[in-house]
Design goal:
- The complex is a heterodimer of chains A (about 425) and B (about 130).
- Chain A is an all-alpha fold and about 425 residues long.
- Chain A has helices at about 1-25, 25-50, 55-75, 80-90, 105-115, 120-130, 135-140, 145-165, 175-195, 205-220, 230-240, 245, 265-280, 290-300, 310-325, 325-340, 345-355, 365-375, 380-390, 395-410.
- Helix content of chain A is about 65%, strand content about 0%.
- The two termini of chain A are about 45 Å apart.
- Chain B is flat.
- Chain B: It comes from Kineobactrum salinum.
- Chain B: Belongs to the YciI family.
Chain lengths: ~425, ~130
């Protein structure tokens, strides 16, 4: 029973929280109500059984707990009295205000967190914490910032939402386009965090991937006719998620794209992703998500690394770079160029990126370089680059992977390296994380 | 995660409150503890008597030396503490913001450092050995 309740907590708590935030209009009160609702569940459910709709039970219990809490505080503060009355009135109303195409409190919360009045870094930090359920400490690690800095930023953003009375709602159709870009960015970040956890001992967090895909699907329904960038983002997620089972081995270690057992790739997701890419690219207005999805689609269609259409991938990166110049995209393009034209061509591009001062702290740049040097039999340069990559990597499976590569290279007595190999930077994640 | 919330205020200023204001504040503090307890956030906490009642002790060369005080020389004095259980720093900030004397003085919030037999976390910024 305890285990069942824990599972319900893991699966439902963020959605219950999103609903409570909408009902109570207050993040803090909602967090507290969520906690009290679950502690009530832990006491009652073992005796009375799990209710037919646990989420509705938790929302309703949470709301009553919040009313109790506000009453207690109202004894000291007359201004709270009004809120109690409002909530008691609202308790009789239907759950969802009419007129919404889609009832999804999490999507609503994302749109609230992405309000233009809230600064970009706070927006992302707040969404990761409130919608994805990461702790402030985890968000801080993802942004390489101090927890107290992130906590302050979120506190200020929440205060802003309260003081400016920003409503918890999916905005009017006319306001959607201006906020869509940020919302897509948030879903992309959520997926990234799930696809490649920024730090720690797990590579993949399936719950975040599933949630990002679910929300992207909702967004696609919300915005007829289908928007190419929404299709592109969903396709991108599906095509990457399709490889999840092949990306780690039984021991949880990373498996590079070229070493993956392509039989393990999820054909259903790939088929859906390919169809969406085709639709997206067939419309005017597609952008970087659709292009990234197109690159993922080329990989998904190849039977092996050798069989991959590298010239097409390089071409897609060229288009992507024109639209969205970024050193991380240039790095990924360099890996593709190395596959098309040989490792020396890739080394030249990455060297020049590093000389420009881009990516010097980005471990994958050094990992990619190391691998290319190895293919060129430049062992010393490869060892140095692996060491640099290892020093910068934050995630344990990645560190272990790099350490193993380094050890294998050091064990060789400078002999030729037989394995054609490449860095696998293209499979790390769609395109790096937005830096702060 | 455990967080310690240390409540500071100016004792001199608090003495200016009327008996009734002081009682209301203390009742509020009790209600705050009650609320934190019900939500599972309250691990421990106490209000302290004034700094006039304090004794400070040091052990140097195996000798215990005690002095009175500290007296109210610093701007704000430690008035009490709450040991909180919170999901993260953000939640701890939120909980601590409801501690009533935060309106008068300040609350210092710090994550608890878990003591281990070895490989203890270094205090950030401090140099050892």
């Amino acid at each position: 029973m305890q285990q069942q309740i824990e599972n319900i907590y893991r699966e439902q708590s963020r959605r219950v929280l999103a609903t409570l935030i909408r009902l109570l209009g207050n993040f803090e009160l909602a967090e507290e109500a969520l906690q009290e609702a679950f502690s009530a569940a832990l006491q009652q459910w073992p005796k009375e059984g799990i209710p037919a709709n646990p989420r509705a039970w938790l929302v309703s219990t949470g709301r009553f707990k919040a009313i109790d809490q506000i009453r207690r505080r109202a004894r000291f503060d007359a201004s709270q009295q009004q809120l109690v009355q409002q909530l008691e009135l609202a308790a009789g109303e239907p759950e969802v205000p009419p007129g919404f195409d889609i009832d999804d409190d999490q999507l609503r919360l994302i749109f609230t967190c992405c309000h233009p009045a809230i600064g970009e870094p706070a927006r992302l930090a707040m969404t990761l914490r409130e919608v994805c359920g990461l702790t402030t400490e985890e968000v801080a690690r993802a942004f390489l910032a101090k927890p107290q800095t992130i906590a302050q930023r979120i506190v200020r953003a929440k205060t802003k939402i309260r003081e400016a009375a920003i409503p918890y709602e999916i905005p009017e159709r006319s306001q959607l386009p201006e906020r869509l870009e940020t919302v897509l960015g948030v879903l992309y970040l959520m997926f990234n965090e799930g696809y490649s956890a920024s730090r720690g001992d797990m590579v993949v967090r399936g719950d975040l991937i599933g949630e990002a895909v679910r929300l992207a699907r909702l967004l696609l329904q919300l915005l007829p006719p289908p928007q190419p960038e929404v299709q592109g983002l969903l396709a991108l997620m599906l095509l990457h998620a399709a490889r999840s089972a092949a990306r780690t081995d039984a021991g949880g270690e990373l498996v590079r794209l070229e070493d993956q057992d392509r039989q393990l790739w999820d054909r259903v997701r790939i088929a859906e992703g390919l169809q969406l890419v085709e639709q997206a690219l067939g419309q005017p207005g597609f952008g970087s998500y659709a292009l990234q999805a197109a690159i993922a689609a080329v990989h998904a269609q190849a039977a092996s690394v050798e069989d991959t259409d590298w010239p097409q991938i390089v071409g897609l990166y060229d288009v992507l770079l024109r639209r969205e110049p970024s050193p991380v995209i240039e790095l990924n393009r360099a890996v593709a160029v190395a596959m098309r034209d040989g490792p020396a061509a890739g080394v030249a591009i990455i060297d020049s990126l590093l000389q420009q001062g881009c990516l010097t702290e980005y471990h994958l740049a050094h990992a990619a370089l190391a691998d290319l040097y190895r293919r060129l039999d430049e062992r010393e340069a490869a060892v140095a680059a692996y060491r640099r990559a290892l020093a910068l990597a934050q995630q344990q499976p990645e560190q272990r992977f790099l350490a193993a590569q380094l050890a294998a290279l050091e064990a060789q007595a400078g002999g030729p390296v037989a394995d054609p190999d490449f860095a696998g930077a293209t499979d790390r994640k769609p395109i790096g994380k937005p830096a702060e | 995660m455990k967080y310690l919330a240390m409540v500071y205020y100016q004792e001199g200023k608090m003495r200016e409150l009327s008996q009734q204001e002081w009682d209301v504040l203390n009742r509020e503090c009790m209600a705050c503890v009650e609320g934190l307890q019900q939500a599972g956030h309250f691990l421990a906490g106490e209000a302290l008597q004034s700094t006039d009642t304090a004794t400070t002790l040091r052990v140097r060369d195996g000798q215990v030396a005690t002095t009175d005080g500290p007296f109210a020389e610093t701007r704000e004095q430690l008035a009490g503490f709450y040991m909180l259980e919170a999901r993260d720093m953000e939640e701890a900030v939120e909980l601590a913001s409801r501690i009533p004397p935060a309106r008068y003085g300040s609350v210092e919030l710090r994550p608890v450092r878990e003591l281990r037999t070895e490989n203890n976390d270094q205090i950030a910024g401090a140099k050892f050995g």
